[in-house]
Amino acid sequence: MAKVLDFGRKVIPRPVFEFFQPWYHGILALSGAVLYGDPSRKLKVIGVTGTKGKSTTVYLITRFLEAGSASSPQGGPAPVSAIGSLGYKIGDKEWPNTLKMTMPGRWKTQKFLAQAVKQGCQFAVLEVTSEGIKQKRHLGINFDAAVFTNLEKEHLEAHGSFEKYYGEKQKLFKKTKNIHVLNADSPHVDLFSKFSAKKKVFYSLQDGFGFKTSLVGDFNKSNILAAAAVAMEYGVSRETIQKALDKIKNIPGRMEFINAGQFQVVVD
Fold first, then answer.
1. pTM of this prediction?
2. In this structure, are residues 192 and 169 in contact, taking their beta carbons and an 8 Å threshold?
3. What is the pLDDT of residue 21?
4. How far apart are CA 82 and CA 125, in angstroms?
5. Is 71 in contact with 84 (CB distance < 8 Å)?
6. What integer pLDDT is reported at residue 35 of this predicted model?
7. Within the chain, which residues score under 70 in pLDDT?
8. How many CB atoms lie within 10 A of CB 100?
9. Which residues pair with 48 in a beta bridge?
10. 2-11 and 14-35 are packed helices; what angle lies between their axes, rounded to 10 degrees?
11. Are 54 and 84 a contacting pair, CB within 8 Å?
12. Residue 268 pLDDT
């Protein structure tokens, strides 16, 4: 599909191409959902967006939901699936993201969700980027919950202005009608809290941090609160979240401290 788009850029006049490009992306996204049987309807899909903290929050939500299903009366853990810059996950199977993009293409995402359904997953946790939304990669996905971590004036070269940048991110909240989880500490939270949802949950470090963690920094504490808020909305207890958090000593590739003999290396 990328080759078709590149060919179109070469042979079609730029104004015409730019006019029809959103239609191309939209049709591609919806056709992928149809092709793979609309798998997101069979999952609780959680979308996480923001300038920073998306990857860590996706990682934490996934671990907390896994811990919650493991402690449920039904028995063993239900597999959880996830997509983000840290990699892909369906249950016990994990593999790296080598696509050079956080959100995969529309058909790749739908194929992944279909595989998650086939493996018995109840949840899919997705890292949702402004560029991905701009290219309509979120269409054809039924989001049950949307999470806002924070907003800063970055990635403006890809969007042209700060307003266009956050405008793309807002589309996730316009689309998601059930649960919105929002960072009350962000000065831009009102840009995302104004959209309707059945339930809105605000989290803040100002309310106190009630968890023990090995992860350093207030930004990680904020990510933990975001992930905990999501998990609790799906029935995971604070005690279970704490037990899961006790096992997490670092986030792979995110402020990861490595002892290299005489030196200490931080991977971020």
1. 0.84
2. yes
3. 53
4. 5
5. no
6. 86
7. 1-29, 70-77, 253-268
8. 6
9. 127, 147
10. 160
11. yes
12. 44
What was the pLDDT predicted at 33?
Answer: 78
* Count of CA atoms in the C-beta half-sphere (13 A) of 113: 32
CB 178 within 8 A of CB 144: yes
Task: Give yes or no for a contact between 101 and 84, defined as CB atoms under 8 angstroms apart.
Answer: no
Query: What gap in Å lies between CA 35 and CA 21, rounded to an integer?
Result: 21
Q: Which helix (H) or strand (E) holds 7?
A: helix 2-11
- Distance separating alpha carbons of residues 214 and 217, to the nearest angstrom: 10
* CA 189 – CA 226 distance, rounded (Å): 13
Task: Compute the distance between CA of residue 249 and CA of residue 66 in angstroms, rounded to an integer.
Answer: 17
- DSSP run (H or E) holding 165: helix 162-175
Q: How far apart are CA 240 and CA 261, in angstroms?
A: 36
Q: Which two tokens stand for residue 112?
A: 């992944």
Strands of 87-90's sheet, edge to edge? 93-95, 87-90, 80-84, 123-127, 44-49, 143-148, 179-183, 199-203
First to last CA, the chain: 32
Beta-ladder partners of 200: 180
Distance, CA of 197 to CA of 100 (rounded, Å) = 33
Residues forming a β-bridge with 127 = 48
- How crowded is the C-beta side of 224, counted as CA atoms within 13 Å? 25
Q: CA-CA distance, 183 to 48, in Å (whole number)?
A: 12
CA distance 231 to 212: 17
